[in-house]
Every structure is written in structure tokens, then in C-alpha cells.
Amino acid sequence: MRLIRRYLVAGLLVWVPLGITLLVVRLLVRWLDGSLLLLPEAYRPEQLLGFSIPGLGVLVSVLIVFVTGVMVANLFGRSLVSVWERLMARIPLVRSVYSGAKQLAETMFSEAGQSFRKVLLIEFPRKGLWTLAFQTGTDAGEAQLKTGRDVVNVYVPTTPNPTGGYFVMVPREDVVELDMSVDDGLKMLMSMGAVVPQGQKTSRQTDGIDPGH
User: In 34-159, which ranges are continuous DSSP H helix?
Assistant: First the structure.
């Protein structure tokens, strides 16, 4: 019975990650294939070839992003973007959404940005309980001035779904910076602590007896 259980667990360790990966890739491809709807109906693959091509939307999306980057990298492209942003700034509701989204994108994708570059350890939701968090910034603006303390902006994700979570401002002296990468931090969160990054395991774990023996 123990041998059967061992083989079942070994099989699950192969198929569960593979199944989740295929599911995520499939959802991503389907979502990006929606970019083909931007094409006139007469030029869509279904009309030209008589059948759809899975994944073509991914190539189209990458091509659109690349061409856009090439265009805005020169003076003429930057001028067009400037005109577009001034237009967005004149629309009341759109102005707030566009401005916030632009600042978020610049923070996350800029090479000089600090967002999601460090994995932190903070006491949350109360003293004595530790949780992983990600640094999103070091400038808290008015909040920092009002408190009179040097605070760090952090995002505390939920587990196993890290897309939801909490934004908290923590005094810098209460933050512990970890050496693990953001990818390793996400793996640990999504596995609910079952996956510990290599090199981060304690001597108690590495010196223990293999549970399979």
C-alpha cells in the first residue's frame, strides 16, 4: 500500500504542474487571440482561410507591441503620444483611469523602477505573524510626511491566488529584506509554503530524513 501511494504521489508531481501550466497557457492564448477582433472581419483568418489558427493572436499582439515601441522611440512617435495624452487629459473620467494606469505601467516596466523588485518579510496581520510581501515603492508622499516616519510601500498578496491582496505602508525598520527572487517568492506563496526556494532551506530541513525512506 505504501508503495502504491508513493507511485501515485510521484505521478501527481508530474501531472499537476504540467496540467496547471497547460491550462494557464491555454487561457493566455485564448485571451490574446481576442486581439484578432481588431482586424476587419474580411481580413480575419476565418474569412481568408476558412478556419482559425490558435496562437495567431499571440503573434499579432507581440507584433503590435513591438511596432508601437519602435514608433514611440523616435521624435515623431513621442510627439504623437504627447498629443494623445493631452487628449486623454481632457476627458474627466478617462483622465483619472489613464493617468493611474500609465503611472503603474511606468513603475512596473521601467528598468529604474523599484516595484516588485524585492521580496520582504513583514509582521502581518498582527505582531508575531510573519508573511511575504513585495516592495512596490519607497515614496509614500503625504502619508510619510504625516507620520513622520520612513515607510515602505508593500503589497501583501493572498495565497494561493496572488492577484488579490493588501497594500500597506510599513516603517522601514519593521521590514526584513529577503535574498530570494520575486519568482521564488511567488512560488512559495502559490504553493502555500509547500515549495521552499533552493538555497533558502534551513539546516533543519536539509539535514532531515527523506520521508520516502
Answer: 45-48, 56-72, 75-89, 92-109, 142-147
Q: What is the pLDDT of residues 30-74, one digit of tens each?
A: 888 877 777 777 777 777 887 777 788 888 888 888 888 888 888
Q: Give the residue, 153 or 195, on which the prediction is more confident.
A: 153
User: Contacts from 77-82 at CB under 8 Å and sequence distance 24+?
Assistant: none
E strands, 43-118, where? none
Locate the domains of the chain by residue range: 119-198
Cell 507581440 belongs to 62
Q: Residue 81 is inside which H or E element, if any?
A: helix 75-89
Q: Report yes or no: 210 and 145 within 8 Å, Cβ to Cβ.
A: no
Contacts (Cβ under 8 Å, ≥6 apart) of 179? 200
Bridge partners of 155, per DSSP, are 134, 167
Residue 70 contacts residue 76 (beta carbons within 8 Å): no
- Gap between the Cα atoms of 208 and 201, Å rounded: 11
